[in-house]
Amino acid sequence: MKIGLALRELHRSEDELAHKLLQVSDRHKVDHDVFYLGQELALWSQQHVRALSEAAARYDVRLDPEPRTESRVAARARDAVSQAVGRAPQAGLLLLLDMREVYVRASGVSVDWELVAQVAQGVRDHDLLQLAKTCHPETLRQVRWADSKLKESATQVLCS
Q: How many CA within 13 A on the CB side of residue 102?
């Protein structure tokens, strides 16, 4: 069965989405909505990474249960950049680019959850199907948030 491939890809995608959400959150600290909600949405993806590693073990697929983290040096550097960028006139454009990337990544994760849900139904793995039914709506919420931030910011940023 190729279910391991689907689980591995979903795990990788969720991990990258969590990492991107944390980057965006830190980069746009001056925008409290982006900062706090971005952190919360990243936690969802990190929880999905952990849950997927447990589910994959039933298919003899070993996935790292811990989401990717970054070094303290990189975090401090991004903090300094965040403070500078938050005041720069290009901050709006950067926010649009970041939200677009979050939207695209989260949309890809959503597709991956659909595939895993379908295969879970096919092999009658009720636990995996329940995991997909629990996690996929959270991913859809991430997609909607990015879409909302894009719509909210686009006119102001692009017409100024």
A: 33
Task: Tell me the two tokens of residue 30.
Answer: 């001056």
Average pLDDT of the segment spanning 29-52:
96
**Do 82 and 28 contact (CB within 8 A), yes or no?**
yes
Kindly calculate the radius of gyration of the chain based on its CA atoms and give it in whole angstroms: 17
Please give the model's pTM, rounded to 2 decimal places: 0.86
- Please state, in angstroms and rounded to a whole number, the distance separating the CA atoms of residues 153 and 94: 11
pLDDT greater than 50 at residue 21: yes
Which sign, positive or negative, has the C-alpha torsion 50, 56, 57, 58?
A: positive
Give dist(CA 84, CA 87) in Å, integer.
6
- Taking residue 82's Cβ as centre, other Cβ atoms within 10 Å add up to 18
Q: What's the rounded Cα separation, in Å, for the pair 78 and 59?
A: 38
CB 11 within 8 A of CB 67: no
Question: How far apart are alpha carbons 112 and 84 in whole angstroms?
Answer: 36
3-158 CATH: 1.20.1260
Q: How many residues does the chain have?
A: 160
